[in-house]
Design brief:
By secondary structure, the protein is α/β, with parallel strands linked by helices. Helices cover 36% and strands 22% of the residues. Strand 4 (68-72), helix 3 (79-90) and strand 5 form a beta-alpha-beta unit.
């Protein structure tokens, strides 16, 4: 009879353990999950809004595949609302720092919600498919977080519009952080007259 030895026993143990590790510890099966490729933020109070979206879905919303966040254009210039949204995204590791950030009006938000499972990669392609000389710089979650945490003076958030049923890049909206760019110091608010 041949002895196994440590290395042989270790190999057998790993072969037994491997299927258990690959199975994972997920509480939900894949067929019980929805994998949106974009996240639409329509209103302030993102925490309650996301809970409401989950409550309205028959499947668990798994945001691990999100490629883009589309925020209501009215919320973007309001720095307090924007900071709340950024804080929500930052404290959840499921949202990668390279996801794209856009602003849009209600018509685009509705169109994106109707195609939430497929719109993320399409939005990524918008940057890749620009004509030579008209390429646009994308804005990712990391850029937005740097803007916020580093007290940068301003950032341009790309705006999406609907044109002939397609969602396309249009203009941008400027978000000002209320700091003096050279000093990184907050600007005092004007007193009401």
């Amino acid at each position: 009879m041949r002895r196994c030895g440590w290395s042989g026993c270790l190999k057998i143990f790993l072969w037994i353990l491997m299927p258990l590790c690959l199975a994972g510890c997920a509480n939900r099966e894949l067929e019980d999950r929805s994998f949106p490729s974009a996240m639409v933020v329509r209103e302030a109070g993102i925490e309650a809004s996301m809970e409401e979206q989950q409550n309205q879905s028959r499947l668990y919303l798994d945001y691990g595949h999100v490629k883009a966040v589309i925020i209501n254009k009215a919320l973007v210039p309001d720095i307090q609302n924007l900071k709340e949204i950024l804080a929500y995204l930052e404290k959840r590791p499921v949202f990668a720092r390279n996801i794209l950030v856009f602003a849009a009006e209600d018509d685009v938000l509705e169109a994106a919600e109707a195609r939430v499972d497929e719109i993320g990669p399409l939005l990524e392609d918008l940057y890749k498919n620009q004509p030579k000389g008209k390429e646009r710089q994308d804005v990712a979650l990391a850029d937005m977080l740097n803007f916020w945490h580093n007290h940068e003076a301003a950032i341009e958030v790309p705006v999406l519009i609907l044109k002939e049923g397609d969602i396309i890049l249009d203009d941008s909206v400027t978000v000002e952080n209320g700091v003096v760019p050279t000093l990184g110091m907050p600007v005092a608010a004007k007193a009401a007259e």
